[in-house]
Specification:
The structure holds two protein chains of two kinds. By secondary structure, chain A is of the alpha+beta class. Chain A has ten helices and nine strands. The chains are: A alpha+beta, B alpha/beta.
Chain lengths: ~260, ~425
């Protein structure tokens, strides 16, 4: 891996970021022979900092990767997962590609729009929910598929989709966990997933250790939910000693941390 | 015969852990490769296996490796950007047996004298990415990755990279652009990635399933692998069943059985007691098959190709007799219109026009000339509408959007005409 030391200008550019994000930015940069390659991971980290890709975020990522803000914008706008407008705390995606379509995905999307009052592609005024239809997410045997902050629920009916919206809006879980949501709102899965997944997403960014966007919803007793790949607290800490109500059901999952 | 899924089926609770992987023969192939076969020996076994790439193009992997230019550094890139509608096999391999992939990556890197490999996982796959990242970290801890692995003198680093939500990055040159921190736009070829790939250096891009087979091939020999299944469709492969079928799921099959067996025996037949109307044999880019013509066609790469379609990514999408075929075609075309990168005019404009014309027809506003218009626009993207498709574009995304249109007209034209006739337009 390439040793990376930020210049004074680069360090200053991201001095507002959390210490974890600053450290992760350096780690990400060290993973590639050329720093330009870090633009996509760094855009995710900037989303963790700002909830979405801001003008300032693009300038910061550009400084770290040797790109102009316009070049970063050109990249960010190419990929659908980089949100350049504020998004809700929960990004609810409904797959409407062919396999999900054949099994009623359009009805699931309509139910979510109706229950949430948020039309496809928009964010509710309270900033809690964003709704979008997405293209195939690779769980076609468990169609139709719904994603909350990219954590998946398979075989969702319109009625269950409505329940999901109410659960998110009223409970506002700190961590969305695929196993918990699957148990509450899902049906058959496309394949046997083996052990239960303890980790989940804390933001509308894919939950991945090196970016700091993951947390465990099944923390060790008395401990703080951690990012297991980093062995430290996740950016948004979850206090396990007093979990929100929505998390107590997670502890009833007979899973084990993977 | 089970190669890829044996461990995950036998050990449901922990097939993804390094402890289970090692306890079930894992990383034995790596030692054999490093200390018995040598780099050329590993490459020779993979060539002898006749394994064809499992990402969609079905190109022989050993032959592809042979194209790698000698310039250093060279790179290996794992294409885990599984996004072809209907396909979810790589997800299962990533989640349930990540060490099998990593061992394949190390062996392949060793065979190709590559010291840095990248695993490009689509951004919408955080759970598979977490599993792979964890496995990579475990492999570093146990000395399978890093410098001088197992005392062999061979150095190999692996970087896990997440995509940003763009189907086109499954096309290998677009993937390389994306990995370089650019828009995921396909490159004009030649030069092919094996000569000028990542950072303009020689690069091999292989699919997850392809590389997950490498440990077995090294352990058992390429000849043993080549002996499984038909000559030109060697080995097992994962197929993903979805749509109106009783038993959707990923199945590891030996190719060669007739489609009737795939749909009715493996898949348990059509759901809700309905009848089969059509199926897509290899992902949404593939032309459709219909029961009147193709139920007895063998499910092999070559037989499906001869009948005008492809095994592609192994995704089988089943449609029952209640399916509105115009709506199905529209939904597939809409995907390609959305995912077009915009570089080539025939694709950028053509796919959107196909989407809009199909929408007009299904909304009851179709015009009699719309059928010819659909075919004409399709012909502008893929001249002659032949199979395998010709193209006016840099990559096959545009031609993929014409497949459902051509199939719709070939098998279900009366349905389209009836829909247009019923409109007032």
């Amino acid at each position: 891996m390439r040793p990376v030391v930020l210049t004074a200008e680069e360090s200053a550019a991201i001095s507002e970021w959390s210490e974890n994000s600053q450290r992760r930015a350096v780690e990400v940069l060290s993973q590639y022979p050329e720093k330009r390659s870090a633009v996509m991971p760094l855009l995710y980290i900037s989303m963790i900092e700002n909830q979405y890709v801001t003008e300032e975020g693009m300038r910061q990522v550009g400084l770290l990767t040797g790109l102009s803000p316009a070049q970063v914008q050109s990249i960010a706008s190419f990929y659908t997962m980089y949100k350049r407008q504020p998004v809700g705390r929960y990004l609810v995606g409904v797959c409407t590609s062919i396999s999900c379509f054949l099994l009623g995905a359009d009805e699931v999307l309509a139910a979510i729009e109706d229950e949430s009052g948020v039309p496809d592609g928009e964010t509710g005024g309270d900033g809690i929910l964003s709704v979008e239809h997405v293209e195939c997410n690779g769980a076609c045997g468990g169609a139709p598929v719904v994603l909350v902050n990219w954590e998946m629920i398979e075989s969702v009916t319109p009625d269950k989709a409505r329940e999901l919206v109410r659960w998110l809006r009223d409970g506002q879980p700190e961590v969305v966990n695929t196993e918990e949501m699957q148990q509450l709102f899902g049906g058959a899965r496309s394949f046997d997933w083996g052990v239960k997944e303890a980790e989940g997403a804390i933001l509308p960014v894919p939950a991945f250790g090196p970016y700091g966007s993951v947390a465990s919803s099944l923390p060790p007793q008395g401990g703080v939910a951690t990012d297991p790949s980093q062995g430290e607290s996740a950016h948004r800490e979850v206090d396990a000693s007093d979990p929100p109500a929505s998390h107590r059901s997670a502890s009833s999952l007979n899973g084990e941390p993977s | 015969v089970k190669i890829l899924t044996e461990r995950m089926e036998a050990h449901r609770g922990d097939s993804h852990t390094i402890e289970r992987y090692e306890a079930t023969g894992g990383y034995r192939a790596l030692r054999k490769g490093l200390f018995e076969l040598g780099a050329a020996g590993v490459a020779a076994e993979v060539k002898a296996s006749n394994i064809r790439g499992r990402g969609g193009a079905n190109f022989p992997a050993g032959v592809k490796w042979g194209f790698l230019a000698p310039t250093k550094p060279a790179y290996l890139v794992v294409n885990a950007d599984e996004s072809e509608p209907g396909t979810y096999k790589d997800r299962q391999l990533l989640e349930r047996d990540p060490h099998q992939l990593i061992e394949g990556v190390i062996l392949t890197s060793y065979a190709l004298a590559v010291n840095h490999a990248f695993i490009y996982i689509r951004g919408e796959y955080p759970k598979p990415a977490r599993r792979v990242q964890q496995a990579v970290e475990q492999a570093y801890e146990r000395g399978y990755l890093g410098t001088d692995i197992l005392g062999s003198g061979f150095d190999i680093d692996v970087t896990v990279h997440l995509g940003g939500g763009a189907y086109i990055c499954g096309e290998e040159s677009a993937l390389l652009n994306s990995l370089e921190g650019r828009r995921g736009e396909p490159r004009i070829k030649p030069p092919f990635p094996a000569v000028e790939g990542l950072y303009s250096k020689p690069t091999i891009v292989n699919n997850v399933e392809t590389l997950s087979n490498v440990p077995w091939i090294v352990n058992n020999g390429g000849t043993a692998y080549a002996g499984i299944g038909p000559d030109t469709s060697a080995g097992t492969r994962l197929i993903s069943l979805s749509g109106h079928i009783n038993k959707p799921g990923n199945y590891e099959i030996v190719m060669g059985m007739p489609w009737r067996e795939v749909i009715y025996d493996i898949g348990g037949g059509i759901s809700d007691g309905r009848e089969l109307k059509a199926w897509i044999p290899g992902g949404s880019s593939a032309p459709w098959f219909v029961p009147a013509e193709h139920l007895d066609t063998p499910a092999t790469i070559d037989d499906v190709g001869k009948h005008g379609s492809m095994m592609g990514s192994g995704a089988v999408i089943v449609m029952d007799d209640s399916t509105d075929m115009v709506a199905a075609a529209h939904r597939i075309v809409r995907f390609y219109a959305h995912e077009s990168c915009g570089q080539c005019t025939p694709c950028r404009e053509g796919t959107s026009w196909l989407e809009r014309i199909l929408y007009r027809i299904m909304s009851g506003r179709g015009r009699p000339e719309d059928i010819d218009l659909l075919l004409d626009v399709s012909d502008g993207i893929s001249p002659g509408l032949a199979w395998p498709p010709l193209m006016t574009t840099i990559c096959p995304l545009g031609p993929s959007a014409t497949a459902p249109v051509v199939s719709l007209m070939q098998y279900f034209r009366p349905e389209v005409e009836a829909m247009i006739g019923g409109g007032d337009g």
